[in-house]
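Fold these two proteins, one after the other.
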Amino acid sequence: MSAPTIVDVLGRKLNLTNLDKVLYPATGFTKGEVIDYYVRIAPALLPHLAGRPLTMKRYPGGVDQEFFFEKNAPKHRPDWVKTAPIWSEGNNRNVNYLLANDLPTLVWIANLASIELHPSLSLATDISTPTMIVFDLDPGPPANIVQCAQVGLWLREVFDHFGLKSFPKTSGSKGLQIYIPLNTKTSYEQTKPFAHALARLLEQEHPDLVVSDMKKAIRTNKVFVDWSQNDQHKTTISVYALRAREHPTVSTPVTWEEVEAALKKKDAGRLVFEAKDVLARVEKMGDLFESVQKLKQKLPELSGLGGGPSSAGSAREQEKNSKVVSASGVRPNAKQGAKLMGKAEKTKSGKTEFGKSEFAKTRKTTSKSVAQKRRAL
């Protein structure tokens, strides 16, 4: 075991250990390279982590060894690492979640071999209010991300008709994830049933490809539209986070044009990105997910699909919503729509300067407007 390396990260002293340890045996990608990646991607990544309760997924022996999730902040943390107490119903106590608000904290987390970073969909200051909706498209073999691309494009059509912007990213594993920023007052009691209902509608319209039930037995060669991530007690892999796969792949924001191209060419490789690829993309394209943190959108009312006496909203609104969804290729009849909405679930050595130059260098690129860095979605 090599001696710790003392580093200075924006004025904070850290002891980094086992930097030469290989965490990705298939490629030789080391712990030092994991830390280096997180330092260099930090200007794009940190805005998506700041203020959000974070669950670490740690791989001390490497990606081919045992791992564990860690929600409660380690007691041996530096006193400058921020935490947020969040009540846990299951544990009947507060859990002190880490807040990865700054670069020193991110480096300290990476040094714990927390390869994967899983933040909440809410800010710690308002834990019951999600700032976004996420649809996790998970392919059942032999389906892959190409089939996920098709389902993602169907989802985009629905949101386009509602006037909502949606943003795709790879999971960094097998699938694709679609984010709809809200950043307005809502609750999981609204977003989760909405996501569930839409997943069911897609399943009804495209039964040969889409399932909304997580039973693995029915997911062969189909895409599971996982709506259940929209829950206060669940987390989703962060944008720009590494994944514990054979190669150091990353959950990467992509353009809809890239999704369309992957589907057209039937080429899953077009939507696979490793750490080095992502750094180059951010340098060239900026943060394609910047709007997810800023764009304000309101969740539309879908209760009009039911057509029954309990449906909310005016008759005109109900007719409009039904036509919109029908035009998107999702066409339940009134009775089925009411049933679907009714079933939607409701819930509640030496000293080393490390990181300053790379942080400042990359900040210049990622601070530019996304509109100047890529084509419009």
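Now the second one:
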Amino acid sequence: MSAIRESLVRIMTILKEFANGKDDPGDGLNVLRLSFVSVVGALLAAFVLIVRPFIWPGSSDEWHRTVAILIAYALCVIIAGLRTGNRIRATQALAHASAGAERVKTQELFVMTDMLQSADTNEDALAVLRATSLRLLPQFGAALYVFNNSRDRLDLIGSWALPEGIALPQLLSPGNCWALKRGKFHINDAPSGTLCCSHHGAELSTIEIPMLARGAVYGLLMFATDREGAFDELRNVQRLGRMLADSMSLALANIALREQLRTQSLRDPLTGLYNRRYMEDSLERYTSLAERNGGSTAVIMVDMDHFKALNDLHGHAKGDSVLRDAAAQLVGGVRPSDVVCRYGGEELMVILPDCGLEDAAARAEVLRGRIEALTAAHGTPISASFGVASIPESSTTHVDVVAMADTALYAAKQQGRNRVICAERRAGREEFQPRLAVTG
């Protein structure tokens, strides 16, 4: 009997703790097991106590009271066990649903990251971001801003799912954005009294997330809504928005790095013009097309006059500045389809597809005047000599046309500089009188 009483005391203590809410949902299965064992033990004890009065008459009242208590206890345990089981099943169902939603989000983010690795431009990355955002955050509009090359402003690359009639600014200044200043997400919600960026429009509530990678900020990701009481909603999407911004920032960093490497392989770092390797490939391609189509391709060789004396007198910094400005004048004086290159040193080259010798000579004269006009800006005499050749008027191959243009350039140097000289036409071609610059 003492063992039974100790068991009852221990079971009653556990039940009292359970009733006081001290049970741990993680131990729910242990509670159910204990409930099952307790019920079985109570029922067995009740059975023994029921038959006990027949063996020891005279003690029926005491035993019957004990039996009633045990049966009541067993019923309480059964009810408590059922309630605990229902609560455990509800908690597990909620946990499974939450885990399922998190798995879906994780899978979407993995797919997004994988797709972004194939993005070649900011527009490609934007398309991937838009598709993922519409699946994960369909209740929010969004926009993507990216720094320009000079990093003095952010340009709007694209926006989607914004409320009707809402237009975001096309440009943002970094100094007007608290998210970029702090390097952390920032919520603009005027109805809640938050500190808002100066570019923020009062008709929207937004969360702005800077996109950082490799220690630099590449842009700004913005989520927006016009619903009331949006502050809590925006805070709740902060974590998922941060994940989207992180994936996107790495993609933008990779795109920028690829573009930088491509530019370095094709461009001259001082002038920004195409380098000699790109010039050779372009010239061969244009001359092949001209031969196939029966057209012309012209080459203009440019050499800055007295450039060594300019460096010796004013320093190399001045010489670099003059060379950059001369390159800019050449680029601004030709068609977008023409190719301006740095051939080497102070020698520059212009390739003009679908252009004959006469038209190329006229264009060279315009370029000569643009370079001579730099004299006033730099406070020292600046001029250049030009040699012009073309296929098929003066040459037959891309190798010959460069050599003929260089020969004409040497003739311009010999005849006094600051002038345009054309290569001689091939036999059977109409003679062309070269246009000489007027020198004073």
